[in-house]
Write a structure and sequence with these properties.
alpha/beta, Immunoglobulin-like, 2 domains, six-stranded parallel beta sheet, 25% helix
Amino acid sequence: MQWRFWLAIACLSPLAAPPTIAQTAPMSKQRLFVLTDIENEPDDTQSLIRLLLYSNEIEIEGLVATTSVHMKQRIAPETIRRIIGDYAKVQPNLSKHAPGYPTAAALERLVATGQTAYGMGGVGTGQESEGARRLIAALDRPDPRPLWVTAWGGPNTLAQALHTLRTTRPAAEVRRLVAKLRVYTISDQDDSGPWMRREFPGLFYIVSPGGYGAATWTGIMTAIEGADNATISNPWLAANIQQGHGPLGTAYPDVAYGMEGDTPSFLALIPNGLSVPDRPDWGGWGGRYALRIPPLDELDPKGFNGGVPITAETRPIWTNAVDKVTPPAPRPYGATIKPGERSFEGFRETIWRWRNDIQNDFAARMDWTVRAPGEANHPPLVRLGHPDRLSAKAGERVTLSAAGTSDPDGDSLSYHWFAYPEAGSCAVPIKLSGAESLYERHFEAPKVDRACDAHFILRVTDKGSPPLTRYARVIVTLRP
């Protein structure tokens, strides 16, 4: 995807009525099928390199080369294979740090070609591609887990798969298979996205339609004024990713338009204790999204999007939500952190708020490709001293505890409990007691008129190099 400078557009507040964490927690690895217009610009290659570093945590089932509005007349599966070849050189070392890394040969078998024509011009009877057939085969597998399809370019290979299913299968079977799909597209990079959302109203679909300036995914790359943007800078990328980090680092290209605009499509699938993929409204590394119909004027209709038509949405989709983030401020003496004095608010902030953690995690995985386990950092093991779902009535004391948390490298740990009001349904603010850095904090349940859910996030960061962070989410149901 290509992009230009944009206008920031405010978004509406999210819907929220969450079930328990246990009901939505992943049973195992998330399944992922990737559609990529790789070679349109360098960022698809960047995102693929990052994804392969997490291939032990995510079950990749397809890597399909596609067209897009920015690359209408060719596809480049050879680049996917080249990057897998670089991965082959470091997979043995990665496997010393964590189990589950697939062989390069297994990944090579996942590479396929998608629709070779652009957009809906490549969708119709008799236009099935290898990629569309493989996507249908993945859906047909007797696997109870949902199948995530992420489109880093045009999604018309998915559109063709849906067209084929609708014209060859009974309606009930089509509904069953569509219900297994979870789609995240990086904006609309051809005209098949609006078609799918209109023709398949039950399709789970995360997207920021319209001009790229109104897109949540830009939070991975945008330099936020007044914020710490060091971890997306070119010097940081050179020192921590590109240079001295083996074949994958060497293969990681310089930024051309924006760093890794496609990466948010799979960040929520990484099991870090924060993200619950089936609940985009809860927020996580991939951003936070609300299920709603965005008004047409919110979609940056005059902004850059390569010329894909922008039309009114016909039904609710998972799209931009707004967070207000007040990062804690470090202190040289006494308590290590204090409440911050500056807040940042917007849809990009739903990703930006986690961005330093995301980037440090990426840097550590790059270290894994070239260093022995004893010479690299590994993330903390977060534990709670109580269930992750609690209940309280007005006036009752609620304790939030990280008792039992540890670090596999023996590193010292820092703790930060904070409320995440946008993820919940409680309108009343809740203040935690004690210093910001305590591993155990408390609050008194406020008075509420009706039952609501309040979300609290535990952020645990080790003091290794680079510092690594993992999380836990606790939902407290407040009752009258």
